[in-house]
Amino acid sequence: MNLEKWEKITGMVKDQFEVEEEGKEEIEDIPDANVEFIIFNGPLGKIRLEYITKPVVLGKKAIGSRRIGSDTTVKYTYSEDEFINTFKAYKWEDSRNDWEEMEQERLGAFTA
């Protein structure tokens, strides 16, 4: 999904539904990564749409020792000029009091 399509979707949501919240958040562990989101009440209930932008991973390196009990961490190398975009949708589940990711088949109305 590209930015133009995301803007089209958010425009459609704002025209057709009551928007509860929208904004942009940075992803802490990844440089230059962010999540744009919009939360609204739709026919399926409370929905959260996300447009995630993050740099492409160029490589990763495991850092640690082979001794028992030592910590191992993974260090990622990110591209400075190449980014990937991801679209995700979540439905609010009152029973769990948390967001549940919607399956791709149910996203047809948003991604078409």
Structure, described:
With 112 residues, the chain is an alpha+beta fold. It has one domain (3-55, 82-111). Helices cover 16% and strands 57% of the residues. The protein has 2 helices and 5 strands; from the N terminus they run αβββββα. The chain has helices at residues 3-16, 108-111, and strands at 18-26, 34-42, 45-64, 72-93, 98-101. Strands 1-2-3-4-5 form a 5-stranded antiparallel β-sheet, with helices on one face. A hairpin with a 2-residue loop joins strand 2 and strand 3. The radius of gyration is 18 Å and the shape is extended. The termini are close together. The model has no long low-confidence stretch (mean pLDDT 88).
Write the SSE topology.
Elements: H1 3-16, E1 18-26, E2 34-42, E3 45-64, E4 72-93, E5 98-101, H2 108-111
Antiparallel strand pairs: 1-2, 2-3, 3-4, 4-5
Describe, in short, the structure shown.
The chain is 16% helix and 57% strand. It has 2 helices and 5 strands.
Would you identify the regions where 5 or more consecutive residues have pLDDT less than 50? none
Secondary structure tally, helices: 2
- Beta-strand content estimate: over 45%
Strand order of the largest sheet: 1-2-3-4-5
Q: What's the shape? A: extended
Radius of gyration: 18 Å
N-end to C-end Cα span? 11 Å
| Overall mean confidence score, pLDDT | 88
Multimeric status of the protein: single chain
Largest sheet data: 5 strands, antiparallel
